[in-house]
Write a structure and sequence with these properties.
The chain is α/β, with parallel strands linked by helices and about 375 residues long. It has helices at about 15-25, 60-75, 85-90, 95-100, 125-130, 150-175, 185-190, 195-200, 200-205, 240-245, 260-270, 275-285, 295-300, 305-310, 345-350, 355-365, and strands at about 5-10, 30-35, 55, 75-80, 105-110, 180-185, 220-225, 230-235, 290, 310-315, 320. Helix 1 (about 15-25) crosses helix 6 (about 150-175) and helix 6 (about 150-175) crosses helix 7. This is Alpha-methylacyl-CoA racemase.
């Protein structure tokens, strides 16, 4: 795998940091998650910790701080998910750790960034998205904005931080030096939204819910079927729209592309005549840009996804997407790794601690080797 040999330390946090660590792990990096000693169920802390090594460590204690510095001294990447100033208070900030290890890539993944009036304030996905202007795009016409589930934290947080780490690794291969990454969700999701922001005059010049891509157009919407399911219609271009109305058995006179809400009502009546499965059969592999709206469980069984082995489902029914993108030098086929166990004892031994020293550390609650 392309990241084989890269050692990552991930400070335990909520979803964005662990997902970033998963991306690194899925492409070959070894990831060690540092959990709090107070966490009783290390394995259950995060659902994307598959294949990661788990350590229980009190980094606030003097001995815990020393252990953490030893871990970071031999690492390539550190993922730190706290608000600005937290690590500096613990004397484990970038200045300290990069002095120990000049090649370390210190990735700071926060909500609001390392500076500014909100840098030390709590927030969640809806708050970050609201500050970018993008939340104003989502929701029904005439009603309040509705946030897409954790879109900001994963796209603007996890994915952008992952990209920053890869860029820093490339840069280090040339310069031999590590660096600090200020990856924050507000700026990350703003960057992801570059196309939306720059296309406002073209595609988002009307109020929410009245534009082509937000439910304002009958040719870009979802329609209920006879069995209470839905079909997604995205026939933007005229040639695709022609294919759509042909499959629906409408003429251009009956359903012009630039028609009004009466066309939407015609479409809805038509879709209610058949089940979702029947519509899937009718549209098949045509260019009408019509697809079924599937549940996650249904997506696993959908013929296209089955053909590409796009999902992994374990014996407990847990569904996981395969890693993406696909690299020709590393074909797919690997099974989902199990969630990591508590490897504290093994990690401490690797750092040179004796059995007696480990027992003393556990007695003083600096570490926890057994759950």
């Amino acid at each position: 795998m392309p990241l084989k040999g890269i050692k990552v330390i991930e400070l335990s946090g909520l979803a964005p940091g662990p997902l970033c660590g998963k991306f690194l792990r899925d492409f070959g990096a070894s990831v060690t998650v540092v959990n709090k000693v107070a966490d009783d169920k290390v394995v259950d802390i995060n659902v994307v910790n598959d294949g990661k090594e788990q350590v229980c460590l009190d980094i606030k204690s003097p001995n815990g701080s020393k252990i953490f510095r030893k871990l970071a001294a031999s690492a390539d990447v550190l993922i730190e998910p706290f608000r600005a100033g937290v690590m500096e208070k613990l004397k484990l900030g970038p200045e300290v750790l990069l002095a120990d290890n000049p090649k370390l890539i210190y990735a700071r993944l926060s909500g609001y960034g390392q500076s500014g009036p909100l840098s030390k304030v709590a927030g969640h996905d809806i708050n970050y998205l609201s500050l970018t202007g993008l939340l104003s795009f989502y929701g029904w016409r005439g009603k309040h904005p509705i946030p897409p589930s954790n879109f900001s934290e994963f796209a603007g947080g996890s994915l952008i931080c992952f990209t920053g780490i890869l860029l820093a690794l490339i840069d280090r291969s040339r310069t031999g030096k590590g660096q600090v990454i200020d990856s924050n969700i507000v700026e990350g999701i703003s960057y992801i939204g570059s196309w939306l922001m720059r296309s406002q005059k073209m595609l988002f010049n009307e109020s929410r819910g009245n534009n082509w891509l937000d439910g304002g157009a009958h040719f870009y919407d979802t329609y209920e079927t006879k069995d209470g399911k839905f079909m997604a219609v995205g026939a933007l271009e005229p040639k695709f729209y022609q294919e759509l109305i042909s499959k629906l058995e409408f003429s251009h006179e009956e359903a012009p592309q630039m028609g009004n809400n009466e066309i939407r009502e015609k479409f809805q009546k038509k879709f209610l005549e058949k089940t979702q499965a029947e519509w899937v059969e009718i549209f098949g592999t045509s260019d009408a840009c019509v697809t079924p709206v599937l549940s996650i469980q249904e997506a696993v069984k959908f013929h296209h996804n089955l053909d590409r082995n796009s999902f992994i489902q374990d014996e407990d029914g847990v569904i996981t997407p395969v890693r993406a993108p696909r690299l020709s030098n590393y074909p797919e086929g690997a099974k989902q790794a199990p969630l990591g166990d508590n490897n504290t004892y093994k990690v401490l031994q690797r750092l040179g601690y004796s059995d007696k020293q480990i027992q003393e550390l556990e007695a003083e609650e600096t570490v926890k080797c057994k759950i």
